[in-house]
Amino acid sequence: MQYRTMGRTGVKVSSLCLGAMTFGQPDENSFMHGVAADEKTSFAMMDRALEAGINFIDTADVYGNDGLSERVIGKWFAARGNRREVVLATKCRFRMFDGKLGTGASRRRIIEACEASLERLGTDHIDLYQIHMQDIATPEEEVLRALDDLVTAGKILYYGCSNYSAYRLVQSDWIADRRSYQGFATLQAQYSLAERSLEREHVPYMQQSGIGLLPWSPLAGGLLSGKYRKGEAPPEGSRMEKWQSRMERFDSPRNWRIVDAIRAAAEEVDATPAQVALAWLVHQPVVTSVIIGVRTIEQLDDNLKAAALELPAEVLDALNEASAFEVGYPYDFIKGVDGRW
Question: What are the catalytic residues?
């Protein structure tokens, strides 16, 4: 397992992060119903991850029903007594209860959500507290002030953001610098061979600023796992079988070209397609830790091997070429003149 500095902090985290969205079997009101792991399996996966060198777990208050994922992790900490071995990340922003006050990133909501997460997790502090998505209804200065006050109070150590636009990320940094706030240490965002849009604006800025990237959906909802084939029905019991609309969105010539390239790369380096897709992310310059979401020990064991998988330059080039995307204006104009944007 490799260890990297968590963005702008001095904390070392594993290059793979165990995503906890699947922890706990929620009821039928949750979109994760039927595609999650029960508590016993969740405990076993956390045990196995820690044993393999993963020291980073990411969750959110909305994962499962009524903070189910956080409660499962809290029970695991209580049972194992291993809180100090884990860099713990969670998030707030999305709706947790009905009414005008049950969602958003206002100061009131952030403080309330943090207190609730601490209680569910059974801990006195959160290592990385993240805003799950920018809130256009709340001034960014209010968001940062609330987060920085939580740092001062010792309830969180660092904070990050997720699903932020590039302009808001830059605005946030400007405010943090002006007010002498800590500022965002990391950005958690969708990034994979199938989804490289971050490379237009986010990645160049993060390379300059030192913000670390935590990619979510690194296998593009399972598309890059190698289990799906063009023109064939999704395997029984897979997420794509339940989420047919997502499968339809992925049905494009570019995506199947990427899948073919991953399969070819997997044969060349003697690995599985999923390991290749994850290893490609581990090789990217601004990536701190790749968030893997699994439902079984078998899936976890397969994913773990990606941490040590070296991809030769020619394999990386082939994957980059297969997943190339239209960057659009002004990026293509700039690249046409300078060779890059």
Answer: 63
Number of domains in the chain: 1
* pLDDT tens column, 23-79: 998 887 777 777 889 999 999 999 999 999 999 999 999 999 889 999 999 999 999
Three-state SS sequence of the chain: CCEEECCCCCCEEECEEEECCCECCCCCCCCCCCCCECHHHHHHHHHHHHHCCCCEEECCCCCCCCCHHHHHHHHHHHHHCCHHHCEEEEEECCCCCCCCCCCCCCHHHHHHHHHHHHHHHCCCCEEEEEECCCCCCCCHHHHHHHHHHHHHCCCEEEEEEECCCHHHHHHHHHHHHHHCCCCCCEEEEECCCCCCHHHCCHHHHHHHHCCEEEEECCCHHHHHHCCCCCCCCCCCCCHHHHCHHHHHHHCCHHHHHHHHHHHHHHHHHCCCHHHHHHHHHHCCCCECCEEEECCCHHHHHHHHHHHHCCCCHHHHHHHHHHCCCCCCCCHHHHHHHHCCC
pLDDT of residue 243 exceeding 60 = no
Domain that holds residue 41: 3-228+272-311
pTM: 0.94
Lowest mean pLDDT among 51-60, 221-230, 286-295, 327-336: 221-230
The predicted model gives 208-217 an average pLDDT of 98
Question: Residue 327 falls within a domain, yes or no?
Answer: no
